[in-house]
Amino acid sequence: xxxxxxxxxxxxxxxxxxxxxxxxxxxxxxxxxxxxxxxxxxxxxxxxxxxxxxxxxxxxxxxxxxxxxxxxxxxxxxxxxxxxxxxxxxxxxxxxxxxxxxxxxxxxxxxxxxxxxxxxxxxxxxxxxxxxxxxxxxxxxxxxxxxxxxxxxxxxxxxxxxxxxxxxxxxxxxxxxxxxxxxxxxxxxxxxxxxxxxxxxxxxxxxxxxxxxxxxxxxxxxxxxxxxxxxxxxxxxxxxxxxxxxxxxxxxxxxxxxxxxxxxxxxxxxxxxxxxxxxxxxxxxxxxxxxxxxxxxxxxxxxxxxxxxxxxxxxxxxxxxxxxxxxxxxxxxxxxxxxxxxxxxxxxxxxxxxxxxxxxxxxxxxxxxxxxxxxxxxxxxxxxxxxxxxxxxxxxxxxxxxxxxxxxxxxxxxxxxxxxxxxxx
Amino acid sequence: xxxxxxxxxxxxxxxxxxxxxxxxxxxxxxxxxxxxxxxxxxxxxxxxxxxxxxxxxxxxxxxxxxxxxxxxxxxxxxxxxxxxxxxxxxxxxxxxxxxxxxxxxxxxxxxxxxxxxxxxxxxxxxxxxxxxxxxxxxxxxxxxxxxxxxxxxxxxxxxxxxxxxxxxxxxxxxxxxxxxxxxxxxxxxxxxxxxxxxxxxxxxxxxxxxxxxxxxxxxxxxxxxxxxxxxxxxxxxxxxxxxxxxxxxxxxxxxxxxxxxxxxxxxxxxxxxxxxxxxxxxxxxxxxxxxxxxxxxxxxxxxxxxxxxxxxxxxxxxxxxxxxxxxxxxxxxxxxxxxxxxxxxxxxxxxxxxxxxxxxxxxxxxxxxxxxxxxxxxxxxxxxxxxxxxxxxxxxxxxxxxxxxxxxxxxxxxxxxxxxxxxxx
Amino acid sequence: xxxxxxxxxxxxxxxxxxxxxxxxxxxxxxxxxxxxxxxxxxxxxxxxxxxxxxxxxxxxxxxxxxxxxxxxxxxxxxxxxxxxxxxxxxxxxxxxxxxxxxxxxxxxxxxxxxxxxxxxxxxxxxxxxxxxxxxxxxxxxxxxxxxxxxxxxxxxxxxxxxxxxxxxxxxxxxxxxxxxxxxxxxxxxxxxxxxxxxxxxxxxxxxxxxxxxxxxxxxxxxxxxxxxxxxxxxxxxxxxxxxxxxxxxxxxxxxxxxxxxxxxxxxxxxxxxxxxxxxxxxxxxxxxxxxxxxxxxxxxxxxxxxxxxxxxxxxxxxxxxxxxxxxxxxxxxxxxxxxxxxxxxxxxxxxxxxxxxxxxxxxxxxxxxxxxxxxxxxxxxxxxxxxxxxxxxxxxxxxxxxxxxxxxxxxxxxxxxxxxxxxxx
Amino acid sequence: xxxxxxxxxxxxxxxxxxxxxxxxxxxxxxxxxxxxxxxxxxxxxxxxxxxxxxxxxxxxxxxxxxxxxxxxxxxxxxxxxxxxxxxxxxxxxxxxxxxxxxxxxxxxxxxxxxxxxxxxxxxxxxxxxxxxxxxxxxxxxxxxxxxxxxxxxxxxxxxxxxxxxxxxxxxxxxxxxxxxxxxxxxxxxxxxxxxxxxxxxxxxxxxxxxxxxxxxxxxxxxxxxxxxxxxxxxxxxxxxxxxxxxxxxxxxxxxxxxxxxxxxxxxxxxxxxxxxxxxxxxxxxxxxxxxxxxxxxxxxxxxxxxxxxxxxxxxxxxxxxxxxxxxxxxxxxxxxxxxxxxxxxxxxxxxxxxxxxxxxxxxxxxxxxxxxxxxxxxxxxxxxxxxxxxxxxxxxxxxxxxxxxxxxxxxxxxxxxxxxxxxxx
Lengths: 425, 425, 425, 425
Known about the structure:
The first copy, chain A, is an alpha+beta fold. Chain A contains 17 helices and ten strands.
């Protein structure tokens, strides 16, 4: 394995022949004088060599040794084509496991260890405590409420009358637009098309069942086809394939209301005894923390996030599992509710717009693929779509664990002490 | 180095003695029968061994080989204490470089290569194109408008009259609260304290100059001290150290309006010629894409994000540079403006709540530290605070590059083609 | 007519007989000693007398002469039953007319004088100037994009699984719910039913075509019927007939996105010449004011209103025309766009949630009915619904006039001078 | 008084001489042929005659008798100068009284009858029930938390660097800007000046103590002066005197967070017994309605309003009391909280941005002035400002009454029945 790591890292200078050394020197000179661009290296070198030479160039340019960035084991041939241009190596993000957590979902059923990639001390421990509470309570109940990835091109009409006509045209031609959209993809199914008008701007929000893919690319390509037909059919001008009513990678009410990606809800009932045992607090206090912080505080702050720290869990799971980390912003749209019940509390998280996939994107990078395998969701499910939904449910349960634990810690006023013990700041 | 990597990976089975093997077997048995908890491994084993045994346990439990997760070069002794509990290894996130980009900031000045950790194909290439445009235009002008990390405990008063009294008490005792707050930290300075009332809930938003630290922990510890004094002085009950008016890790208007972390603005003037040359479009089209997408579309979607994809750049820079990835949600709060000018366009990004630091958190992990060194911002600045501000300015310029490039691509309607050429979806 | 006014005002003390005087004195004594409640007066007296005696009681209690409040001409017999309890008279709100404005709508077509009830000096003059510009440009193009009044009861489920079942049940029983809903109304048609889940809370948003009625009451009664069936069929608990996802009388993204009441868009194209002539400014400046104020400023302020002062016009039209003044909050949700065109600008307003009616509510009060008649929209249209839509289109054009005029005034920096000339402050 | 009403109404045709009749006919002819504009009538006629002739013109143009609009008693000489252009008469809005409600405020203290101008049946009765509950509980505790009317001009800078300079310049010249601002007003005091940047747009939010005036005009005039100085001092271009960060007459997070106008909080503690007696429900149900509707529902709807129907009360009080009805949109920004307590519930409303005044605007119109007198707040207070604050506190208590009553009705599931009994829809 050491050999393997060495080869992949492109760091094995001992094995470099005189010929190779000369070639590298020439290339570095050309990079410096600008006759070769950094992104052209893969045209002249194998991926592994391109990465190494590019890193050497960076080291020389900045006077910074990049030793650790150069150590990696993933297969870069595919990565440089699909995941990352101008690659110089990798950063290693620590992965901890929380759990197991029992999940009783529509797709995920059983005990799961959760891989969390993070450098935020105390996060894994916190989620772990939440998993413990959930499992002791019999598991998290999880449901997928909606499933559909969206893209919304924006067009410019000549007038508001023209804009209204475009909407009518789309309604009338809905079926043929669907056929055209689906002709661009072997998997995706168009499940919705809605129009919105703002003055002369017309937004057409297309929704697709993207099976096990997160699906943004599939949807973008299909939308381009549909957008062309709309432009041809109505004389409206296409302004941008994404008109921000998708809404991709921005917090947006439309995602919260209509859903985007997988819409997940997860809940668990905790008895008074369990609350006392695991969280050293009581139902009323747990409830009050959630009420004053996640509702009154968020309302007062003009926040779109009615939760404690959903993004911590979403981001850590996304990075571990090869999801698009930027999607943590949509994915962490979350309402956390704590209901007082006769027996204790019922705690739930609602995640209307979790964009996840188990194929494509970063899911094939070896370390990330291992995390997906750990959860039993790598690659396409049977039938297609079930793996992505299973992953969404597991993340839903993980977020529930994280919320439970932080609310519990705040309730017990342990937060500051936890930070002090870590000696950070 | 191969040896080194082997040792660090904890994977060197060849070197394991019979004694070690027996010990591991015993421990695995205890983990399975529940007499030893996963998080207790570090009590019995060295960090590197604990990670290895925990990973072996996970492999056996889930039947999943975790070969690549086990290959890493970072120093885990510190990581397991400060960054990640229950560690089983790392995920390797590909790092590409964009740039160089010329930055004319108050703290960052010169040419910078931007490290971006991502698995989203086309992102690095896109930012790279934006950097090229910026540099050709003479560089991005960047300014820090405000600097202050916040925490807002929430208290429960008995009545609205009591709530009003608490606000008055805080105003009167401001100086002694500051002294108390600053007694908990060697670096931080309390720069603000504001009260908000919603019914019986009182929120006290404390703001600190945290120098080169991102500062959440420092601020949380100081807030605990202040919160205790307020509770003692007024009889109000502390409900939670974080009352969501901070607002940490949720999209929130209060951060956009009052700022949180580093508030950054970056802009660049592009001539008609440059727009045509780099983006194959014109000023009017670039402007119209931004207007209809980032303003009209975002307004219509009820979005808090008036930008194209700021989070892509923020998340990739954060992961590369050891920032808290979950903070990308606050950090990517962004308004992107394109003004039509006599000579072309002036494009700017405004990032009011970028929480970054160059010490603490994940900044000490070796691969991430190398990314910070690449930017010349590792560790404490001289004077303290200047490195973090420099990093904030560089990220501001990077976001500007990303916005420019995507707006340009949309304007030229190249987006779908770019995706198709990558063969993804 | 003077006699008539006197009679109605209940102020004609000269005509009061000794018997009446004694009766009144007795009643006033009972009101004072608490043996008769203010709201019980109509049980013992005719409406006109009840109003008079109640006012006299108020005068005595507070030592305040309420002479003018007692002068009115409207028929109070119906008002005290349908519009106002504990009535003591009326306030007189000045009505000015703006226009005529030419409207080219789907329902409103022709020249309209706009009645505006307001005490804000300069408003009528401002709208008038906008009307002038619109008419000179050939009229406002207006379209109704959507029409549907909504109510969303909220239920409490036992768990998230139960919540998901409730949604499924509603989907399956959609037709029978519609039949039940429509059995409660002679006019309304149920046009939509959508479910939303947040933890254990289930919201069922019902949408109706309410014809010429604004329709809140019709929809509330129908929703009560539907809510009972859902509770019976699923075992879920009804918490409130309005669960705030309606959303009634609060600013809410859901109304902006999905529409509520009448969704209206109005636009007009202004030439360079017209802009210069009417507004003493130019296309570029008009555009820039809208861009920096209504988009950049509103985005920066965390505002849900991307307009200049839509509510001024909506409130003034609503009060004049007997609409529910509180609905001005929903009705003024508005995005104002100014597009640069080859010939000048295209200005539009988008009002997604304008709740208006021409029957019911305050539309029958005589002064308000006269305003509706002035617009040719009093009572039921032929076919039903056309009058309300016509009114919505006229208000759309009026808002457009108001926006145009204020943007023009700001562009010409006349605002402060206008205020100074009015000598107010 | 009948004579008086007749004169004022301008309807006394019997008294019209032949000379007058000829003059009117001539004028009507000139209006019809366009040689005289509607708004020019006051140049040729006394206000009362101008109103009458304009109304006659409208009647002829539209074929609509406007008999009731022509009946009014208010003094139009001032109204046509200050409140309404192109006046044709008034609409009569029914006024009911609710209460008395006991208010224990910082400025308002005692029992108050609340005048509510509305055509929404059941509203006065509902508020009345809330007043009863509050008074039985000993009264509403009310506090003013902040007081300051704002205006925020927007400027265009050349670059983000220039924008940052403008902010610095404003900070440095704060004192001289205040002197200049205050030179424009005899009453107002500048209490704050804050700058915000979004790209090249600079917003300067000025805050004033406007004493008993609502103050928008005062603040606008002062802002014009300040804006000129800033433009002169920095070379920045003034784009609009109102840049929407004020934020005037739009829902906006900035008002909720920083306050605008009078920031009011009102609360009351209700015992179990009182809840049962007045509302026929219990503490837990009342609490749950508020939690699921006003928090969970509003959060799920992307609403900025965390209340049941605050605007109903604010609009009705505003119209009755001569406030700017369009300001109900800002004024009704409200968070309603219901806390479970040992003895029952504590219910509170928080109104951060209530723009009210007791001088200027519509406060001098006779009917509206009588409503203010009814509350003991007409005209300037001693010291100045106390009347406006007293009015704000009374409205706070009124909103509390309205919220209590609707929550109670929903809790008892009486809402639909109430509507059915009114026989409306």
